[in-house]
Design brief:
- The protein is 32% helix and 28% strand.
- By secondary structure, it is α/β, with parallel strands linked by helices.
- Helix 2 links the parallel strand 1 and strand 2.
- The chain starts with a helix and ends with a helix.
- 32% of the residues are buried.
């Protein structure tokens, strides 16, 4: 009887270590007009929450000021969580009061223009460093006094080296498992997502992170455009299937090489330029979901796909819908 009881306790404890998932998406574009495919993806998968980037705080080097790009409108009949992106450099150039007041002013404008209804929930996206940690955390503490559901994004190195980088003083952290390496590096195959690379930061660390978390996973692609061996730009939604074979050819190493000067959408491609196509591999995303279900020590976890405004997500909706149906 005692052996049976011990076995039962082990079974129960192993079940309790697994988390359930709910799914949502980001929207990272100035226009909030949804096309038919995007609406269908939301409806088919019962997704009723969108994280909308409402404005940025970026440093203007030329004028030593803060630029504030904004969205034009909001979403109707969709639960919207506002997101604010803050460039890390802002904290070394301006004091906390200035940053805090700008945020409050622009949040007020977003409410007045009915882009958002309230700031009961707010997400701050900033890749803080050791030198900006103190002022950034001060800002988060100030914001949390008036915002109940304040969350902040967390990069993978901030998971592995949490003791040094600190734990943001927020209700929830969003672990961003994408953009793992520099796209400027010609020696890597995929800067957007690699399961093995992510494991170097997550395995043995994620389950010990002392904050409630959500997970952001990639649902986008790009082309890394190289000119004379150096990165020139990132081409959003680059699609190899739309390449004109008269203009470009695929090399054995996976790069696409230009045969002559031409345009791909609005991007000018010079002769002999190279483009490395990058996107998340669905089999690696499935491996990540398996890891997450066993290594997040909380009852439920939100998975946020970045992003609904990417053509890659809707073009590969079947693969993402399989993930959702498997783990929802």
């Amino acid at each position: 009887m005692r052996i049976i009881l011990i076995f039962y306790v082990l079974i129960i404890s192993s079940c309790q270590s697994e988390t359930s998932f709910e799914f949502s998406t980001y929207w990272w574009k100035s226009s909030t007009k949804l096309n038919t495919q995007q609406k269908e993806f939301l409806n088919t998968n019962n997704i009723n929450k969108i994280y909308l980037r409402i404005f940025d705080l970026k440093f203007d080097e030329k004028n030593s000021s803060i630029l504030i790009p904004k969205v034009y409108s909001g979403f109707n009949d969709i639960n919207t969580i506002p997101v604010i992106y803050i460039e890390n450099k802002i904290f070394s150039k301006f004091n906390i009061d200035t940053i805090y007041n700008l945020i409050q002013q622009n949040i007020k404008l977003a409410i007045e223009k009915e882009i958002i209804n309230s700031t009961n929930n707010l997400q701050i996206d900033c890749d803080w460093t050791l030198t900006t940690k103190e002022p950034y955390f001060q800002l988060l503490k100030a914001l949390s006094k008036g915002i109940k559901g304040l969350s902040a994004t967390i990069r993978l190195h901030q998971i592995k080296y949490a003791q040094a980088t600190g734990i943001p003083p927020v209700e929830k952290g969003i672990v961003m498992i994408y953009n793992l390496e520099s796209p400027a590096d010609v020696n890597i195959k995929n800067s957007i997502f690699s399961y093995d690379k992510a494991m170097q930061y997550l395995e043995g660390y994620l389950d010990k992170y002392p904050l409630k978390i959500a997970i952001a996973l990639p649902a986008f692609s790009w082309g890394v455009h190289y000119h004379h061996g150096k990165i020139k730009s990132l081409m959003s939604d680059f699609n190899p299937e739309k390449i004109d074979n008269m203009n470009m050819s695929k090399n054995k190493d996976g790069y696409y090489k230009s045969k002559k000067a031409h345009f791909y959408n609005t991007h000018r491609i010079s002769n002999r330029d190279e483009i490395r196509y990058e996107c998340p591999k669905i089999e690696e995303l499935n491996k990540m979901m398996t890891f997450l279900i066993h290594n997040i020590k909380q009852d439920s976890t939100e998975i946020i796909f970045f992003s609904l405004n990417s053509n890659f997500l809707t073009n590969n909706k079947i693969n993402y819908e399989k993930i959702i149906s498997t783990y929802n």
